[in-house]
Amino acid sequence: RPAARQLVSHRGVLVNGKSVNLASYQIKAGDAITLSEKAQKQLRVQEALTVAEQHDMTPSWVEVDSKKFSGVFKAVPDRADLPSDINEALIVELYSK
């Protein structure tokens, strides 16, 4: 996750063709996410895509085209679609401060 945040903060991610530099940027269903040409050349990005493809790690609510370094956020996931090890109480506690 730190590497992904850095990729965003260095303007390596485009949402609907526009550069984004905030890791907290809220995407909406139907948004197209692509990587900048500079980010596409990074070895760690290429390796991450290869590993994700090999282990079929793409969630059902995201459509990925690894050859184009792009994807589409299809829909907001239901709670059942998320990993079970998320502790909602800790999230609520963090944001209620």
- Helix/strand order, N-terminal first: HEEEHHEEH
Spatial ordering of strands, largest sheet: 2-1-3-5-4
The Rg value, from CA coordinates, equals 15 Å
Low-confidence stretches: none
User: Globular, elongated, flat, extended or rod-shaped: what is the shape?
Assistant: globular
Which secondary-structure class do the elements indicate?
alpha+beta
Beta percentage is 15-25%
Q: How would you name the CATH homologous superfamily?
A: RNA-binding S4 domain
Helix content: 25-40%
Largest sheet: 5 strands, antiparallel
> What value does the average pLDDT take?
91
CATH architecture: Roll
Distance between the termini: 23 Å
Number of domains: 1
- What's the total number of strands? 5
Determine the number of helices (DSSP H or I, runs of at least 4 residues). 4
CATH topology: Structural Genomics Hypothetical 15.5 Kd Protein In mrcA-pckA Intergenic Region, Chain A
Classified by CATH, the class is: Alpha Beta
Account of the protein in words:
The chain has a single domain (2-95), classed as Structural Genomics Hypothetical 15.5 Kd Protein In mrcA-pckA Intergenic Region, Chain A (Roll). The protein is built from 4 helices and 5 strands. The protein is globular. It has helices spanning 2-9, 37-40, 43-54, 88-95; strands at 13-15, 18-20, 32-35, 62-65, 70-73.
Keywords summarizing the entry:
97 residues, Structural Genomics Hypothetical 15.5 Kd Protein In mrcA-pckA Intergenic Region, Chain A, five-stranded antiparallel sheet, 5 strands, ribosomal protein, S4_RNA-bd, RNA-binding
